[in-house]
Sequence to fold (80 residues):
Amino acid sequence: MKKYDEISKKEVYICNCCGQMIASVDECDRAAFLDVSKAWGYFSKWDGCIHRFQLCENCYGKMIQTWCYLPDEEEQTEWI
Ligand SMILES: [Zn+2]
Fold:
């Protein structure tokens, strides 16, 4: 989630799972985290809603360990 940080006077990303600060929004390209924006469609449980959330690297790692199958993984040929 995005939140205004009174100390740094910047907008920051907070991990939706553990509440830790991930990075300031303007420097987030240097941070490792999961950034999700999902527009739910017709006939879904959240019809017409957009869900946005961020997870820190640790919480993402814990989350995928609860899945039946780990995400598909391949090596990046180009670094973004
Ligand atoms: Zn977290």
Remarks:
- The mean pLDDT is 94.
- The longest strand covers residues 33-39.
- Residues 15, 17-18, 20, 55-56, 58-59 surround zinc ion (CB under 6 Å).
- The radius of gyration is 15 Å.
